[in-house]
Amino acid sequence: MRKTLFNRLLLSYMPIFIIVVTFTFFVFFQVLSEQSRKEALNANKMLSLQAMRLIDTSLKAIDNMVMMETINNKELFDFFNNESKSNVFTNISAVKKMRDMIASYPMIDSIYLVRFEDNFVLSNATSDQLSNYMDEPFIQRAKDPLVSKQWSGVRNFEQFSVKGSKPVVSLVRGAPFITGEKGMIVVNVATDSLRSSIADLYDPKTSFIGLRDAVGNDLFSDFKTNEQTKIFSNYVSSYTGWSYQSGLVNGKVFHVISSLYNVWFIIGIAMIVVGFVWLLYVTRRNSKPLEQIVARIRGYRLPLSKEGGDEFSFIESALSNIIEQSNQYQQKHEEDRHLRTRYLFHQLIEGDTGLTHDEWVEETSSLQLPYASDRQVVLVIEIDKYSDFCCQFSRRDQNLLKFALRSVIQELAPKYELELWAEWTSAFQLSVMVFTGSEEEASAPQILQLFDNVRAWAQDNLKFTVTVGIGEQVAQLSSVADSYKEALRALKYKIVLGENRLITSEHIANHGQAEVFSHLNAIRSIIQSFRLLEEEWKTKYDELFSEMKLGLLTKDEIMNLMNYLIYYLGREMAGMTKEFQEIWVLDGLPRLSKVIDDCHSLEQMREQSLSVLNSLYTGLLEAQDRRLHAGTIRDMRKFIEEEYANPNMSLDYLSSTFNINSKYVSKLFKEETGQKFVDFLIDIRIQVAQRLLAESQAPMQEVAEQIGYTSAISFSRVFKKIVGCSPGEFREEAVRKQIG
After folding, report:
1. Local structure of 231: helix, strand or coil
2. What is the distance between the alpha carbons of residues 555 and 43, in angstroms, rounded to a whole number?
3. What letters, b where the CB count within 10 A reaches 16 and e where it falls short, cover 21-46?
4. What is the Cα 33 distance to its own chain's centre?
């Protein structure tokens, strides 16, 4: 028997097979090509972003340095506040400071200071009156309070006529920093330095970067627009307002090649259409014999059909039933119920549902959710030490444990006559919406008892603990977002109140929250004692953590304070000897930063950070003991602390007492303590003066004499410079605090 039907079907569908295979290969290679094109574009965009971030970071570092020096640097302060305008030493000190700033930040091209009182300009290379200075027009514009004090656009700066001008961008900061009434500091950065800073990011043979200031002037550009170049990305810095443009050198050619993708795509669609038409034709032609057979079978009746139908009737009935059930299932599950439920939950806690009461009833009915009652409350269950949880369990075990936690909550809720709705809103937070009755007082104890049992069950049966943040009960669905925010806010205090517990708004309200900035002085005092290698820094450190715990600070606030401690400690270490700096950079800073980042509780942070600081303190002591004159300086410090009230206390007095040259004493004191002799003596005297002013009513002259000043006027002037207020004002404030 010849296989005529088989051969005919084979030859009929062979062209379709060839078209499908061809189109599959075509799609594969086109998708691969398109993916390569997109990756090239993304890489080019990242080039612009990286260049923008690199330049912004460098300029911000310069800006921060200028700000800190304006606030803290004595040489600059003396220049702007010097009563004798022709004080050569003050000018030389200011020039030296400017050169140190340029040495620390090589990107800086030049710096000059402008003193408004006598219109005097002092740069790192020259000085002159403002009217004779080459950059006078820019200074006059910068004086205008309406002019932005951020980085300027590109401009030509000429310091010496023989050298000519160069394009720069400039930063203007007032002195003092807040008011700017004394003068200004101008920092110039050459555009060539900006270009050099990003030169290693790209190959100029294949790509380019252009940089324009806020008004569209080119700071630099290593390309010229032509038919071979095309800009693919353009980003504007939020810090400087400059625009960064990048693209490919052969961008036009790249664009033309990539556009061929559309042509090939049209060809592919045409091939599909041809194949579909051919499929209809072949199917129609080959189905005619089958239709004739089916028609003949339908016209034939078997005796069996009277009882239950023939075989084809049974098959037809079964197929009809299957098709009907499939249509119902597809209609019923047109949208996945689980995804809709999670989406609705997120809308509720984010406060953007916009559903009316009737719409809510309809939605909860279709999704089989609890019906909203008179009041709702949101709780957030957070897995403690989530990083350890991820390291301890595999991804599969993590999902299983999370499922177990959620299931336990849903199973225990009916025992307390509560209805709830739980969804994982993040990898480590399970949010629960509890629907309560109209009486808040009656349902609150049940909620607390339920979730305390959940917490205890997790502790006993799972290998991790949870902390529960509880929001306020609300009456409207639109207020659910407020309850959710309150629950999240409660969890922020977990680091202080402790893990594995329930935290409500009452726990937070029972503590008086302290101002974060009130701890900055304590941190500075700790670091100064630590730098001077005094044992009392440990006591102050414990007191700091006690105050943070009593003040009920959030985790973010505590992290900010500890980061400030690291910053200030690093700043103080930078003023010490090179050996001390290496101990800090190589050992102290990495360990202390890791401890602060990894801690989950305030007590853990205190213990581990104290251990690191003790180790660093021991290393500094050993390093100091190895130095030749460490013992001598310690004796000097002890002598000063005992004889601070001696009005003759000076470098010459120390020199004669310890039989060492006065200039060498000053140098040794600075190297070993990081602090000048005069500053150390003034600090001791001012501390004693503050105690005397707060604890006694002695006259100012008597207080001055008790701390080593023969004149009350000199004492008042020094006190106000250090403390920021006069001795009388300080005493009045101390009395008010004692009364309060």
Report:
1. strand
2. 37
3. eebeeeeeeeeeeeeeeeebbeebee
4. 37
Say if residues 596 and 563 touch (Cβ distance below 8 Å): yes
Distance CA 387, CA 2 (A): 72
User: What is the SS3 string spanning 566-622?
Assistant: HHHHHHHHHCCCHHHHHHHHHHHHHHHHHHHHHCCCHHHHHHHHHHHHHHHHHHHHH
Q: Which residues pair with 647 in a beta bridge?
A: none
Query: What is the distance between the alpha carbons of residues 629 and 27, in angstroms, rounded to a whole number?
Result: 79
* Both tokens assigned to 210: 């252009």
What average pLDDT score do residues 527-538 get? Answer: 78
Residues facing 329 on adjacent strands? none
The secondary element (H helix, E strand) that includes residue 595 is helix 589-598
Which stretches within 228-250 are classed as H helix? none
Of 180, 171, 116, 108, nearest in space to 138 by CA: 171
- Tens-digit pLDDT profile for residues 51-71: 888 888 888 888 888 888 888
Q: Which element (helix H / strand E) includes 470?
A: strand 466-470
Strand, coil or helix: 710:
coil
Rounded CA separation 631/624 (Å): 9
CA distance 197 to 189: 12
**pLDDT tens-digit readout, 241-260:** 888 888 777 655 555 555 55
Contact 16, 247 (CB under 8 A): no
Whether the CA torsion 452, 453, 456, 458 is positive or negative: it is: negative
Rg of the chain (C-alpha set): 39
Pairwise CA distance, residues 452 & 292, whole Å: 74
Calpha distance 35→314 (Å, rounded): 52
